[in-house]
Design brief:
CATH topology of the largest domain: D-Maltodextrin-Binding Protein, domain 2
Number of helices: 9
Helix content: 40-55%
Structural class: alpha/beta
Largest sheet: 7 strands, mixed
Distance between the termini: 54 Å
Oligomer: single chain
C-alpha cells in the first residue's frame, strides 16, 4: 500500500467516468497502453479486480466502487487546497465543468460566456453538451443545468433558477400546412414531447414528418422549414426566421434547476459560476 498515490487514483477516477480506456487516456493525456498498465498495476497492488467489462464498457466492481468513493473524497480535498491557495487574494481560479442540453448551452450560456470570462480571467469553463442527465455526485460534472428537479441524486444541492416557457413555432417563410416535428420514444416522458404527442393524436389526420432525440435538432428542423414544433420562447423568439403559431400566451412551462455537488458549492470558482448562471437564467427565463 506504500506505493499507492494520488496519481494512481486519478486513473481509476477517469476510467470510472468514461467507462472506456480510450476515453480515460484522452482525459489524462496518455496512451491507452499506459492506462491499461496502470489499472493492472493497481489491481495487483490492492489484490482485487477494480473493473469488469459489460457490453463494451468498463464498470466498477464492488471493490472498485469502494476505491472510487474514497478517491473522489481525495480529489475534492486536493481541489479545495488548490482553490484556497489560489484564491487567497479572492480571485476565482481553476476549471469548472458545466453540463446542460445542447440547446441551453448553445443559445443561452455560450452567447453570455465571453463577458463572464473577461471579468473572471483565471477561470476555465468546460462545457459538456449532453441530452442525458450527467451526474454531479459522480463528478461527471461540477454544475448541471436541468429542466427537471433531480430525483436520484439525493446528495446533490439543487435550486430552481428560472422557468422555460414553450410555444409552437415554424419557419416564417413557410406557407403550406406543416407536419409535426416530434420526439422519439426514448424521450416520450419529457413534458414538451408529451404535449406534441397529444397534439398529433388530437388531429384528424395526424402527420409526423420527422422525429428527433434532442431539442437542438428540433430547432434546426423547424428553421429548415421541415415542420412545426414546441420550442422554448426565450430562444425561438430571438430567431428572426421563426414565427410563433400558438399565440402570445405560452402553452407549457418547465422549471430550470441548477445542481451542484455538495462538497463543491463552497469553492470560490464554483460559487462564481453558480452566481453567474443563476443571474443569467433568472434575467431571461422568467
Amino acid at each position: 500500500m506504500q506505493d499507492l498515490d494520488w496519481n494512481d487514483l486519478r486513473y481509476i477516477l477517469l476510467l470510472s467516468r468514461t467507462a472506456r480506456i480510450a476515453g480515460a487516456a484522452r482525459k489524462l493525456g496518455v496512451n491507452e497502453t499506459t492506462v491499461a498498465r496502470r489499472i493492472a498495476r493497481l489491481e495487483r497492488l490492492l489484490g482485487v479486480r477494480l473493473f469488469e467489462r459489460h457490453a463494451g464498457a468498463l464498470t466498477p466492481t464492488e471493490s472498485g466502487q469502494i476505491v472510487i468513493n474514497r478517491a473522489e473524497r481525495i480529489e475534492l480535498d486536493v481541489e479545495a487546497i488548490r482553490d484556497e491557495v489560489g484564491s487567497a487574494d479572492k480571485v476565482e481560479v481553476g476549471k469548472v465543468r458545466v453540463t446542460a442540453v445542447p440547446l441551453v448551452l448553445n443559445h443561452i450560456v455560450i452567447p453570455a460566456l465571453r463577458t463572464f470570462l473577461q471579468s473572471h480571467p483565471r477561470l476555465q469553463i468546460e462545457l459538456v453538451a449532453d441530452p442525458r442527465n450527467l451526474s454531479v455526485t459522480s463528478r461527471e460534472a461540477d454544475i448541471a443545468l436541468r429542466l427537471t428537479r433531480p430525483e436520484n441524486e439525493h446528495r446533490a444541492v439543487a435550486r430552481r433558477v428560472g422557468t422555460f416557457e414553450y410555444a409552437v413555432y415554424a419557419a416564417s417563410a413557410t406557407r403550406s400546412a406543416l407536419p409535426w416535428i416530434s420526439y422519439d420514444a426514448t424521450w416520450s416522458n419529457l413534458p414538451h414531447a408529451r404535449w406534441i404527442a397529444d397534439a398529433i393524436a388530437s388531429e384528424p389526420k395526424p402527420e409526423t414528418f420527422i422525429t428527433v432525440n434532442d431539442s437542438e435538432l428540433a430547432l434546426n428542423a423547424v428553421r429548415a422549414g421541415l415542420g412545426r414544433s414546441l420550442l422554448p420562447c426565450r430562444i425561438a423568439d430571438n430567431i428572426p426566421e421563426l414565427s410563433r403559431l400558438s399565440g402570445a400566451k405560452p402553452i407549457l412551462s418547465r422549471e430550470m434547476w441548477l445542481i451542484v455537488h455538495p462538497d463543491l458549492k463552497h469553492l470560490a470558482r464554483v460559487r462564481a459560476v453558480m452566481a453567474w448562471i443563476e443571474e443569467l437564467m433568472s434575467a431571461r427565463c422568467n
